[in-house]
Amino acid sequence: MNETAHPPATLLLVDDEAGILSALRRLLRPTGYTIHLADSGRAGLEVLEREKIDLVISDMRMPEMDGAQFLEQVRERWPGVTRLLLTGYADITSTIAAINRGQIYRYIAKPWDDDELLQIIGDALEHRRLREENARLLALTQQQNEALRELNTNLEQKVRERTAELEQVNSFLNLANDKLKQNFLVSIKMFSGLIELRGGAIAGHSRRVADLARKLAIHFELDTKGQQDIFLAALLHDVGKIGFPDAMLARPVVKMTGDELGLYRKHPVVGESALMPLDELKEAARLVRSHHERFDGQGFPDGLVGLGIPLGARILAVASDYDGLQNGTLAGKRMSPDEAKAMIAQSRGKRYDPQVVDAFLELLGRPKPETGRDVEVRAPDLQPGMVLARDLVGRDGVLLLAADYILDASLVKQIQDYARREGVSLSLHIRNDKRMSSGASPGSS
């Protein structure tokens, strides 16, 4: 923990499970903090009435009075006490209630990582100290301004002296504000990692998307505020998935059932709702809502078209799908960077903004062409036995046929009938390297 000249902090731990309280006390015993325990929200309020508490850690799900209700009372009666929420289930509605009503400093998921929990507590106490120091420095500034108004003699010299003191105070305030901004960004990054704590292919996804989205925002010469909004939206674009079942969270989009797709299509709106209460995240929330819109108007949730989609959301769509294609959460298989670039380029002007795709390819380099391995064949010219050289993807981004699929007569007829019925000019990339075995069966790969 951080070494400080201040006396050790006093913590109150509130949980109806004795095992949790015991584990937290063992973890915190070597830190030097003074620890108080309470097995319910009501017992926690009684401790606060008789003890000076610096920080409260409360469980969310407790009988009679849950964590949101308890922390709301703490905020109203002891506003100077820093509040942390400890929860063991992914219920975004209850979490939002605790954030809005209890105005918690941070939310910690069970089971916690010991080192991370200690760091969060240290940061929370440092945040509280900085807040108190800010108040003290502001009060000092007001006192000094009052003294300046009362000066009648040697005004010029005294003004110079007081100005030097005020500059020093302002320097301290700037340092404190910079620290608060840094803590805010750290909090956002930790919040964005909540969904990734459940592991799987999504680990690290938000951070990679945020880094690429910020580079694209810089390419488009957006101002600092615009770059920051896109970066924050990228970190938080999947927060609406926090209530997904584990099985669904690990399932690629192309393999989801109809009911799961219905729930999946709601996550941008859920994510926006979670972020809107914070003024600093209102623009980021708007981008989160629109990051599944398509340039051709076939996206969701609002069916926006072309430049009617916010630029930040158009950037986020490319950055998120590029990483999703590589980690296997979109197409059901992991793609190489070149394969993912080719898929993005293939949907230029349909799924993605052409300008954003061009900037993306300029930034990361165009995919290396596989010369001599495929030829583009129009639907009327397809023949049974031909082998797909590239994945065939529908307008909504769903994988229809995988590369190396062998076309049979029935499938050729279905493709030709579809192209004729829809009046579209449909072409498929067919292998040209003659590596198909004569004994291979249709649909094998």
Secondary structure tally: strands: 9
As a whole number of angstroms, the C-alpha radius of gyration is: 28 Å
How are the strands of the biggest sheet laid out side by side?
2-1-3-4-5
Content-based structural category? alpha/beta
Which residues form runs of ≥5 with pLDDT under 50?
Answer: 173-177, 434-445
Query: In percent terms, what proportion of residues is strand?
Result: 5-15%
Number of helices: 16
pLDDT averaged over residues: 81
Q: In percent, how helical is the residue content?
A: 40-55%
List strands and helices in order, with pairings:
Blueprint: E1 10-14, H1 18-28, E2 34-38, H2 41-50, E3 55-59, H3 67-77, E4 82-87, H4 92-102, E5 106-109, H5 114-150, H6 155-192, H7 205-219, H8 224-236, H9 246-249, H10 258-264, H11 267-275, H12 282-290, H13 311-327, H14 337-346, H15 354-364, E6 374-378, E7 392-393, E8 399-401, H16 409-422, E9 427-431
Parallel strand pairs: 1-2, 1-3, 3-4, 4-5
Antiparallel strand pairs: 6-9, 7-8
Helix pairs in contact: 2-3, 3-4, 5-6, 7-8, 7-13, 8-12, 8-13, 11-12, 12-13, 13-14
